[in-house]
Structures are given as C-alpha cells and as structure tokens.
Amino acid sequence: MQIKNIKVSNFKSFEEVEIELGRFNALIGANASGKSNFINIFQFLKDIVENGLDNAISMQGGVDYIRNINIGASKNLSIELHIDSKDEPIKFGAEKDKELIGISAYEFMYKFSIEFYKKKRGYRIADERLEANCDFVELEKKGFIPKVKCRPR
User: Fold this and answer.
1) Full 3-state SS string of 101-132
2) Structural domains in the chain plus CATH codes
3) Mean pLDDT in the chain?
C-alpha cells in the first residue's frame, strides 16, 4: 500500500499544497521552507489513528498550532490522501441471497476536514469520507466463511 498523492489545506505553514509521491521521496529545501511541517502531516495522521482527533490536536500544540496562522479560522484544515494498493489489494467477501460476492479494493481516497470556530476556541469535523475503487471477483464456496453480511438498502 502506497500513498500516491497528498493534498493539504490550512495546516501549519501550508495554505494549500498538493504533492505526488513515489516509492522513494526526498525533501530538500531552505530553512523554514516547510520540510518539517510536511513530515508533521504524517505524524498528525498517525496521532489521530492511535490517539483520536482531540489528543492528536493537543499533541501538535493545540488548534492554534495546527492551522495556518495567516488563514486562521477562515478556511477549513483539510487533508486528502490517495492510496494505491494494486500490489496488495484488500480483499473481502460477503454473502447475499446465498450467493458469494468477492470484492478486491485496489485504490482509496480518504479525505477529512476540520472547521474551526471563529468566535471561540474549538473545532468540529466538517467532512470525512473514504472512497474505494474495487473489482468484483469470484469466490469458491468450499470452506468460505463470509466476513461481511450484505444488507439491502
């Protein structure tokens, strides 16, 4: 699984940045050009996963330290990741109407944004979404135990 693209708005020194990533990447730049803040994006995401959003914001120093000081609360902080897992697709199966359906997900887009309150210190999750590109695949019935039950909408 590999992050192919990252797009960030209103995070630390970044007003807006979008970067294509490859298998090997190097950060080169002058002092105070944003190299450490770029690495902090990944640390922030890791902290959210391991400790939750409130703690992750605290670990970064609080609301005033994660958003761009020039933009402040006038624009949402947003992070969008495009993830490629073609080398190792995520596969799962489901049973619907006694038929087996297999899904092989190979590409993901995850995006979330945080809206900052203008008059008081605080924030809320304004948007969060996960999209996946996938293929339907055949599954053998022999010994298959579905991990997900499909429910009609």
Assistant:
1) EEEEEEEEEEEEEEEECCCCCCEEEEEEEEEE
2) 2-87+106-133 (3.40.50.300)
3) 85
Q: Which two tokens stand for residue 133?
A: 């590109």
Name residue, tokens 């609360």: 73
Among residues 3, 121, 21, 30, which one has the least CA distance to residue 72?
121
Confirm if 55 and 47 have CB atoms less than 8 A apart.
yes
pTM recorded for the entire structure: 0.77
Rounded to 5 degrees, φ, ψ at 73 are -90, 0
Q: Which run of H or E residues covers position 45? A: helix 35-51
Q: What is the amino acid identity at position 49?
A: V
Q: And the tokens for 6?
A: 């990252």
Q: pLDDT at residue 148 above 80?
A: no
pLDDT band at 143 (very low <50, low <70, confident <90, very high): low
